Amino acid sequence: MSDLKPTADAPRSPGRPRSTRADEAIIEAVLDLLAEGSTIEALSIEAVATRAGVGKATIYRRWPGKDALLMDALRRLKGVVAQPAGHSVRDDLVLLVGAVGHNVDPRAERIMPCLVPEVNRSPDHFQLYQNIIEPRRKIMREVLRRGVATGELRADLDIEVAMALLTGPMLIQRLMRWHPELDDRLLPENVVDGVLDGLRAR
Amino acid sequence: MSDLKPTADAPRSPGRPRSTRADEAIIEAVLDLLAEGSTIEALSIEAVATRAGVGKATIYRRWPGKDALLMDALRRLKGVVAQPAGHSVRDDLVLLVGAVGHNVDPRAERIMPCLVPEVNRSPDHFQLYQNIIEPRRKIMREVLRRGVATGELRADLDIEVAMALLTGPMLIQRLMRWHPELDDRLLPENVVDGVLDGLRAR
């Protein structure tokens, strides 16, 4: 349940063991409201409190405001970050690419695609969203840099483009069911091997 | 304005030159309602008629039903299909990849991401959406097959995976502004060259 911890800017006051159930209910209320079609804009602490069956003060005691609460709720959809083993760049990438677009919570399927255009309209929310995905990006970036350093990958690799090449195919398939005939189970390996080896005849 | 032609299953009755303005108003009404957050489910012929300032009969004279109208409206967002020159597989792919996720209508940015989860819940709507993107897929598939035939691309190429590799990075960037630091103008070339050449050191 480590994903339920408040963000760094919302220190939990000690000695509050009863709070776990309220935390849970509040996070669940946020995700339910978003999955039912609430926009970020329309989502209010009041609506969350009503849905969770708690008072507004209970929420403010745990989170400094809507954005911090939202960030904890969205982070919860994704579960824990995958940790690569560090032996082979190819195998590490298969692990990381397999985690792209993977959500542990089925509500993500309704929440995430709709969230994107709204997030993009607000600089604050855009930053909030980047904060959620950046730790995952950082791990992939490190694996790619290691590959360049060990000589497994090209010395002139554009790391950011490489990340888009590896992430894009998984995201469109998982978030948008882009192509009904692609085999989701084989896709992480197919994407990594395809991008590493290239399509050109040699 | 060829994009405004009714679908094949909705033959236009001849001798109706005044209809263009009504066609336009009806299509605009659909796109406005979707951009304002209407779900496909909630979108009714009645709501479209009210918004367009026409009678329901005017709509039914032009389209057999909501799905045919919706398909024409969504197709309109994307504009005309790019036609590759057929000289170099690499250059043709740059053209086609550059058109991925490109919408001529700014409302697409609000409509498309939110549409996806809804479309995926209904087999009819999923098929409708596939009908819109399949002609574009077909052209890319043909370029890739030609590349295999000419020896430019690997003989063992998995065409569907290759299409996902080429399409995914563009779609996440254009539809979701996935990575703020990627240069959108250079991306089609970077994606095609990256995927063709591969990331592995040689």
From TrEMBL, chains A, B:
It comes from the Bacteria. SUPFAM superfamilies: Homeodomain-like (SSF46689), Tetracyclin repressor-like, C-terminal domain (SSF48498). GO terms for molecular function: DNA-binding transcription factor activity; transcription cis-regulatory region binding. InterPro entries: Homeodomain-like_sf, HTH-type_TetR-like_transc_reg, HTH_TetR, Tet_transcr_reg_TetR-rel_C_sf, TetR_C. Residues 44-63 bind DNA. Keywords: DNA-binding, Transcription, Transcription regulation. Gene3D superfamilies: Homeodomain-like (1.10.10.60), Tetracycline Repressor, domain 2 (1.10.357.10). Residues 1-21 are annotated as: Disordered. Residues 20-81 form the HTH tetR-type domain. This is TetR family transcriptional regulator. It comes from Micromonospora wenchangensis. The lineage of its organism: Bacteria, Bacillati, Actinomycetota, Actinomycetes, Micromonosporales.
